[in-house]
## 1
Amino acid sequence: MNPLRLLPLTLALTAALCAPAQAQSLLQLVEAASGYDTVWQAAKLQLDAASSRAEQARAGLLPSAGLSAGVSRANTEVTRPKLELNATTQNAGLSASQPLYRPANRIGFEQGQRGIDLARAQLDAATQDLLVRVSQAYFDVLAAQDTRHFVQAQKTAVSEQLAAAKRNFEVGTSTITDSREAQARYDLVIAQEIAAENDLRVKNLALDQLVGMTGTQPLALAQPLQLPQVQPDDVAAWVQTAQEQQPAVRQAQIALDIARLETRKAGTGHLPTVDLQAGYNIARNPNGTVLMPGVSNRTNSASVGLVFNLPLFAGFSVQNRIKETLALEEKAQADLETARRNTAQATRAAFFGVQSGQGQVRALEAAEASSQSALDANKLGYQVGVRINIDVLNAQSQLYQTKRDLAQARYNVLLGTLKLRQAAGALTPDNVAAINRLLVQP
């Protein structure tokens, strides 16, 4: 079952119809994207096609029937004795066949069923990828909004410091250097604000394009924020889950199963086939026949029997086909091992990335408090004359840079938990819903 179907359909309608001025939650935008994203829709259609293809393979095990009918007219001349006959022949027939022993058809049916499993694994991968892509775009917008907010706050602080430096210069308590340093820092912040505005515009456009909406406004994280802990806190457990659930591993395992079935199918080229066939035919000659001219007749015939077919020699094609499928089977085995190794590595990297991110958040929270204390101390020192203007400006810059880094680190941890679950193949809409509950509720 597609995990996105667990989300109420009404969320998609709400997200699609809501006004641009209304803020959207992460869950709403995920649901909107599921009805718009062409990558996910292509994977869904691939599953539908695989189901139909499997039913085609089932036809090789079921009976088949056909109806035929025809009419013909023949002109027959006999020299001795002299005879000329223009006769019409009418015929109709019904035939049916039931495979009794066709091992290749049975294996083809099994391959069709495994093909459904393969398409379902591909859809699971596309679903998890969609969840991560929407979440990434969502938090990219929030991070860009935070950057703009902190730059604007820094601009306000630098502007106040610039005004203070000008006043002090006018009264003679500071030099022109303080004013010029403050002006240079103010000009730099203006440039940073322009860049932040453009970055936010680009991030908003990316989110709009992903979810098929215009003017999206993501809800911000609620404050204070308590970041969720990774459970279980054991990298080996995550790797084990990845080896069992990761869609890439599942696809490689199913591909190996299909390759093994193909080898078995190739081996059936030497085996016999047995079919049950039955038929019923009607032939009518309204004008008679050459033997009985002018006498209308009708012939009914019914038949039933077994058809046995045993291949004897096919120019070594069966042997070479088996060699080909064995090589492809070994390739599928190698692809499976590669998928397992890559998945294990990606899962370990994602796990340690989340752990590192959580440690970084704690360090930046401490750095934020320290930077605020340093700024307050520098402002006081500037007022009493033991600090110069550049000290205050540097402290302001450090504080707002720390605030930006802290906000980004929090977003990275939340995204990291989703990417960890994606790497392990365990990401579901419920995990997104858990993060959605951390947002400011409208």
## 2
Amino acid sequence: MATIDIFDINKNRVGEIEISDTVFNAEVKEYLIHEAVKIQLANRRAGTVAVKNRAAVAVSGKKPFKQKGTGQARQGFKGAPQYYGGGVAFGPQPKTYDLRMNKKARKAALRSILSLLYKENKLTVLNTIDLPGVSTKNFAQVLNGFEANKALIVVDEFNRNLELSARNIRNIKVLNSEGINPFDMMKYQKLILTEASIRKIEGALQS
């Protein structure tokens, strides 16, 4: 099995941990990563833009004037697009952008991303992130020690001091291990994991 060093928040090496080869040292399948990110971004689209067509506008259904004898082109409905207040011709209508990826493929995509970050030395493991209090300044110093200017931090459970300390730092995001996703993992340049979160991730992705 592959191993990786464990650090404390002061960047002191405190040991090492064995990590699953099937999760952190697997074959990197770039096509699955691309597919997973594309699907996640597509599903963020609301698709709610819409305009009223001639069937939806609230106007009189009466014919504007008689069919013949006026010298004008025949007209049948004041809700037609050429009239003020009429419906829009060929306007946008609500649309769904939902795409789906089966669970097996999505897990393989997450394993590929974790393996890619591990092979590129962009994965850091901390024994714990135990902050004495809420302090954005102090936590920013911790991140500077790891040269983590743009990082995704994954923890095993809610950490109030960490969440409040990190929320105002640009390009830093905190997630629970259950919330890891392809887009965020590829967006940030470094992945910081707690030792406990690694075990949860392995348990979720090995099957």
## 3
Amino acid sequence: MDVAARTAAGKDARRQAPRSSHGGWEPAPDRPDPIALLERQAASRVPELVPIRYGRMSVSPFAFFRGAAAIMAADLAGTSASGIRVQLCGDAHLSNFGGFASPERDLVFDLNDFDETLPGPWEWDLKRLVASVAVAAREHGLARRVRKGIARGTVRGYREAMRALADWRMLDVWYARIDEQELARQVQALSGTDALARFERGTAKAKRKDSTRAFAKLTQRLNGQPQIAADPPLIVPLRDLLPAEQAADFEDRMARLMAAYRATLPADRRVLLDRFRFADMAHKVVGVGSVGTRAWILLLLGRDDEDPLFLQCKEAQASVLAPHVGASRFSNQGRRVVEGQRLMQAASDIFLGWIRTTGLDGRERDFYVRQLWDWKVSADVEAMEPETLGAYGRLCGATLARAHARCGDAVAIAAYLGSGDAADRALADFAETYADQNERDHAALLTAIEAGRLEVQTGV
């Protein structure tokens, strides 16, 4: 369709789902028990790590929200949708945006978690983002009026960016990114000189967070060889998980696993990977919602023992969106994550790939692979001042719009949203009422822990 037809289609979608229909939130009469959904997820995870997940989620309503993507996906399935689909992040909350190194060694700001990515209604990502803003604003003790203003600003950031992107050439949309210079300009314009100074200190620190830094922090010398140091239960080397003979056999399989992973990389990256040799591996606990899934870190060495490359090999299970939008077209869940990430991110890790392998328990599982640390930095949402939180929400909204425009119809979405604030107000109402629901769900988690229904481990 031409631009005029796509614009008309976007406006026509308002008949199917008026913008006002996105406002508010009422749980369905048959809404699943949120704790039962968490228990269902736990069934496929490492049992001894699940209490750590519950412990991390119990800390606050915002921490709970971070781990509750499956709960919110089930809730969103019953909400209004325009029928316009994009590649979804699937877990687009505030803490899943951040900075990282581009292949050109620039710091870029973008979405950085795609474990749940699948095609679906664009509204779902935006609703998860704006709800996370409302939850975070409550933890700051902000008044309802201030919270709703920040939420409206987040939606406005998305809406105005999408309207601008709708007029861009497709190649310009594809190449668009928020780099360090643009981010610094926005920080200073929105939050002033002091915020810019904090930003510059943070980016300088982020640029030291790479494989060399991970090598210094995570390894030790054993028998003269660099190996990953144990820090149980968060980091457990393979040698501590299996008897010595079995561990040696497992390491022998690494050549086959690396060959399978290598095949998913572009040809030039294969040449680079071939310059490294496998040295050690360990299981590592990561994140909040991801705790309990299998995640490994791999130490590779290049020209000598002081030339490290750390890779993270993270289990990819079926997306929490799949029961509501349909299964992925990719049979390998690791590939699902990688392909979604490549679609949505302006720049992706040069070592991004996937594998399928049989684990220590004899079960076949899918994984995606990327560098462990590569200038990765996340904003401390819970420490932000109200003005900074508002600016950050607008930035994340605009960033999400750019990700959706890469793989969806920016013209139709922009036409649906329009130039007024109808969608801003409706989605801010949704965010506020869904934050109420999130608080009830967090309270249910605490009750389940107190009643002994869930085992919890805190402080890790």
## 4
Amino acid sequence: MSPLLAPPIGDPALLTQRQASDSGTEQSGRKYRTAGQRDRDRILYSSAFQRLAYVTQVAAPESGHTFHNRLSHSLKVAQVGRRNVERLQGLVESRKITGAAAQLIGNVDHDSVEASCLAHDLGHPPFGHIAEEVLHGVAQEHLGPTFDTFEGNAQSFRIVTRLGVRTGDEQGLNLTRQTLAGLLKYPWPYSDQPSHKANRKWGHYQDDADAFAFARQGHSEEASAQKALEAEIMDWADDLTYAVHDVDDFFRAGLIPLHRLRGDDSGALAEFKELLLDGRSTEPDLFGGYPVDQLVEALKSPLVYGPGVAYEHTEPNRATMREFGSNLITRYLEAFKVGNDRDSGMAELAIDPDAKCEVEALKALVTVFVIRRPGLAVVQHGQERMIGDLFRWYFEASAPTEDGNRRLLPPGAKERLDKSDDSPEARARVVVDFISGLTEATATQLHNRLSGGWSGQALDSVATVG
């Protein structure tokens, strides 16, 4: 059981950043939406959310196959997260959840959770985790290990609290405390200690410490590593949605042999195990730390719902995959349980450990059969170089001296540079914000132009994106 972060007594969870510092009532005369609904709408209409349609989940559509992208993934995470809140609140109404857990669930707003889920991938850079690692590495190379460089979750928080644009007199989307708390999957800042978990994942940049303090206002230092229930719901919705829908995508594309694995095909299971062992030998942290044999065994339970034959685009095959996805999502939602600690009476979260291992096994299928394929490795090598080049070129161009050339940067990034203190850290943050906000097509086109590989047109709008 994991302790859950209870809201501070008397804390207005639906207070926005602007209301916290301004006695004005922004919503005067606009009473038809709740605060959570307003948050959801602001995210849905943001340019950062629209960009996700052009950022891939694992692979880009090709050869007639349509895969989930970051936009369709986020929409489904939001649907699953909202349904989980409604399911939990139904259990409270039927008295199957009582006490502190019932009180905590009663304070959760399903619209706010949906908003957090919609926003959870806004900071996802082009080319996914490849770019995340490169941006982190090259920024540290230029600025040293103490600069908190780039992390996708921290970038999502930065977008909604600082970079997003609504009006000319405020930064960010002015979301409520509850929605912001739901985004904080890693509620701590960066640590430059290699052994610290915050060296790998963190929830906000030092630049955005004030926004983080607002989202966590009233919570003690002892609760610093605890997530809000909203964030737990978002995180689980993200995990199970990613696992189920990507397996569906790549089975249909012929890359993951679900039908052979379901049939207890010794050859298929042996291949899966061999691929797991190979991945673990090169990346010890892969697969959530689960033993390989446990992952192979765990896969058998979800595949009971799976297909028995190779996929063809027929009505029976499509129906089977729809049922497969629906059954698994229901299975994993019901594995998410909120109860009360027997000793303290405080609310705690328990996700069924078998379900967690099954989700990790499904994610491992995508990792070993798709992400680690040699053909994709070649593409990823090129993507790594592209992101690294873009950072170096734009960081050099951002210099305020004659060594720089800020005309290379788009107007929005140049405007932020001109308002900065011109320190290397400030310049790097602007460049990281810019590159991470590109689509994959735009990043590729910019790299081609800046490297001289494509002359383009003098009035080409690609040069002024951002």
